[in-house]
Amino acid sequence: MILYNRFTLDNGLTVLVHEDTATPMAVVNVLYDVGARDEHPDKTGFAHLFEHLMFGGSINIPEYDEPLQRAGGDNNAYTTNDLTNYYCQLPAQNIETAFWLESDRMLSLAFSEKSLAVQRKVVCEEFKEHYLNKPYGDIWHKMRELAYKVHPYKWMTIGRELSHVENAHIDDVKHFFFKHYRPVNAILVVAGNVKTDNIKRLAEKWFGPIPSGEKYVRDLPQEPVQQEARKLQVEAAVPLDAFIKTWHMDARLEKGYYVADLLTEILGGGGSSRLYQALVKEQKLFSNLDCYHFGTMDAGLLTIEGKLVKGTGMEQAENAITAELEKIQQTPIGEAELTKVKNRTESVIAFEDMSVMSRANSLAMYELMGDAALMNTELNKYRHITTEDVTQHSLQIFRESNSNTIYYHAK
Amino acid sequence: MTLNRTITPPITDAVSFDLQLKKCNQYQLDNGVPVYSLDAGTQEVLLIEWVFYAGNWYEQKNIVAATTNFMLKNGTAKRNAFSINEHFEFYGAYLNRSCYNETATITLHCLSKHISELLPVVAEIIAASVFPEEELNTYRRNQKQRLEVNLKKCDFIANRLIDEYVYGIQHPYGKYTSTLDYDNLNREELVAFHRSFYTEGNCTIFTAGKIPANLDKQLNEIFGKLPLQQKTIPVIEHPLHPSTEKKFSIINDAEGVQGAIRMARPFPNRHHPDYSKVQILNNVFGGFFGSRLMSNIREDKGYTYGIHSYIQNHIHDSAWMISTEAGREVCEATIQEVYKEMQVLCNEPIEEDELSLVRNYMIGSVLGELDGPFQLISRWKNYVLNGVDENYFYNSVAQIKTTGADELQDLAKKYLNPDSFYELVVI
């Protein structure tokens, strides 16, 4: 049970405080309700580029990192398709430094041309390092475009192409900032060796004066139900054939999400999972095989992906996967197997909750989903899933017409 | 009163903190296996690590140590690979294994309540792994395929080659794997290595988390009777054969858009008096986000997504390493900037303002790392395996607080001379 206090400032900023006296540290986590899904299709990669610019100086403070490091702190940030999250950790005595820094960059950035010019280059190198200069690095670019026709999940957070990042203009930066980086669109979580009264005072002092901003109302085109299977053949200079197939699954808060999450565990979670045992160990068709999803807020993709053992045909590999999926659709799974994946979920949650930083992050995430209290009921949602749920949802998800397949051939 | 946001709130200098390293409990099993135990944390979770002197330092033939370690989960006298995996996964536990140079480990993460179901199977793995031929064939084929993919990555190639240049291809720190090594493996070698270095090997156990009251008793019952610790660890010398050439440039992928840059020079291990002080110099140079290499090469020039320098974590000999992936057309410029930063550190003392920032940052990081049982035991493990004790911790902290700019400049002059560095670009 993770305890917290919640209050809202007059300008609409939501603040959560999680007290933990066992640590000498404090964590300040600021989540902004904006991700790559909120980008314009011609200006993709912007939310992530923006994350870099948040370290390029704010209106009153030329350098973000330096004063934080001087206070014994460290920080980082990440951008997903759904949200952007900034977090720092520092000795609890120095927590006001984090309030000073985070509130100033929420008030306004410095909008430095130099910072934009440099970070455009840095992000282009990040793009190259992770997506261009790696074998199979473009596989998710292609899969997203295949699986999503209208929803903005069709591009990656790094952006659809380098040119979008290269062409980012300072006016785009300003517009994006004042649209999304406002108190009313943010969640502040403070955790660690802190007292709520003091945090309330600091929050009012530093964040209270920031103009509220306009609530961003998300109105994204939702992906229509897919009507027929989509397939793509790719050839690239890679050493091995790779196979990837996705199926649309439910959004984060729907029951179907929790069942799909357990399904990925049953199929691909660890050395005793069904696909690994059948296709890597017994039939020896794949040299590695993964089954996963990204936990996205809107309807996501359940994915099976692997590299083929040389000599295996793509159809042969795909048929073997289909056969395993038919088994789970036609024969109810045993109670022991369901207990296994539930136990695994229980321990994943327990390990995640070990660090204060991770607890702060989760609180912000669940608050974004509607209520931080969801964090404490999550495990129960998994516990209530039955073997019938698994059968029913596997029938619903693993329909061929709901699928997107890429045969990624080695040249 | 309006808030003046240009004024920095007052801070407590982290260097004024009195850092205390939580003590580790220590006891021995009946067979002499030492156990280090750290009882801390709020979640009902447990980490247990079995460390064996079974790294590639002790193998006669390439990759025997790594393969033996990898295949620990692939079959015992009583269970096949599936049933071993299923057992741990049923209890939501993670059983991992890793092979390093001197040591190889088995690591268990689990909820404390399941521990008694899990320990006997770990003992089985240590005492009675069988290395089935079919499992070895599967491993061999899949690893060869994995290697083939990795060989397409410039960073993978660069990491292998730089170690070869520094230590020599015959040295445990410098050697690496070829597909031929997989073909040459045979089952009997694994069985023999397992017997010598696991079943009858030298083991140290580390435990951390919410420790159940009777864990010592359980460990003694299950592991205290195993034939461990009967022999002393063999003393093996591996001579260094560093490359005589210093500069290398390799095209691995003609179409590559980035180059992996590695620069390294030999450096002594942590028993050397310069070691702790150089950690401070390294932080200024390239050890954290605010370092000079990051500020110059990423934040000012935008040549790379990240650049880092560090001392390799080795027990015997070590190296000071600089590592980055930079745009293909700016690789040479990046290398020149690295040398330029070395030169500045040699020519000019670090100003007090920058040095105090680095001191505070380092102490703040140590404070953060003292938080949480798993991080603490990992620090203790590092000390135990490197033959140092808690004095090492207190000395390092004292060095961070007191080492002066003059001393750091002398160290820069001693170590950061471009001629002593190997230099490699892999595109």
Draw up the topology in text.
The complex is a heterodimer of chains A (411) and B (427).
Chain A: E1 5-8, E2 14-19, E3 25-32, H1 46-53, H2 65-70, E4 74-79, E5 84-91, H3 95-107, H4 113-132, H5 139-147, H6 162-166, H7 170-180, E6 186-192, H8 196-206, E7 230-236, E8 242-248, H9 255-268, H10 274-282, E9 286-292, E10 301-308, H11 314-330, H12 335-352, H13 356-369, H14 374-383, H15 387-397, E11 403-410
Parallel strand pairs in A: 2-6, 7-11
Antiparallel strand pairs in A: 1-2, 3-5, 3-6, 4-5, 8-10, 8-11, 9-10
Chain B: E1 25-28, E2 34-39, E3 45-52, H1 64-70, H2 81-90, E4 94-99, E5 104-111, H3 115-128, H4 133-150, H5 154-167, H6 179-184, H7 187-199, E6 203-209, H8 215-223, E7 247-250, E8 258-267, H9 275-287, H10 292-300, E9 304-311, E10 318-327, H11 331-347, H12 352-369, H13 373-385, H14 390-402, H15 405-415, E11 422-426
Parallel strand pairs in B: 2-6, 7-11
Antiparallel strand pairs in B: 1-2, 3-5, 3-6, 4-5, 8-10, 8-11, 9-10
Helix pairs in contact in B: 1-7, 3-8, 9-15, 10-11, 11-15
